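User: Can you model how iron/sulfur cluster sits in this protein?
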Amino acid sequence: MSQPITLSVTSLQSALNCPLCFWIAERLGSPPSIFARITSQMDSVIKGYMRQFIGGSDLPEWFPVRGTFLDASQTLRATDSTTGITVAGKLDALAKTPDGKYHIVDYKTGRPPEEVPYYYQMQLDGYAYLLERNGYQPVAGGVLLYFTPQHGDLRDGLFPFKITAVHASVDSSRVLSTLARAKEIIDATTPPTRSEDCEMCMWREQVGQRLSK
Ligand code: SF4
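Assistant: Here's the modeled complex, given as structure tokens:
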């Protein structure tokens, strides 16, 4: 495939998850999104609220980094010279601590996990890759900031949320090997094998077998 390839930071992990799904999405088009709209609405509310802090350092107590809150509204891009793949992505939030280091913050809705899930780790690594190649160095780490609905008094029409920070280290070099794998999959002229443990495909195959009887 010789056309320019652009991958979003959020799609990097899918190249490792299932070669077949990734190949189909890149060659034939992505399936409809199944992400809950409430998640993107939450993101938009938080980002809208945080906009007032851009350029300042008097941040809300729950914000996980003490430093200057930066404008992260632009889409960052970087092209890997080996594969020719352009990575693109927009951070939820970016802060710079007094020691000159950059910190990625990504808003999440739901229960915080004990450890950073591998798919979010790749997302954070992808943001670090973009930041480093756009002059934001050094990147010290990332934080997944979880907004979790809580039981509480709803009389005033306000929903209580608990906010939890899950800190992560970042390693932008992991992105390069992922891009190499992504290019290999995209260049394949026949569909690659599917993921071994995808419940959706196993279910689809079982249904297909039953229908053909
Ligand atoms: S195994 Fe799962 S992820 Fe892969 S093609 Fe099938 S449905 Fe898609």
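A couple of observations from the model: The pocket of iron/sulfur cluster is lined by residues 18, 20-21, 194-195, 198, 200-201 (CB under 6 Å). The longest strand covers residues 139-149.
User: Helpful, thanks.
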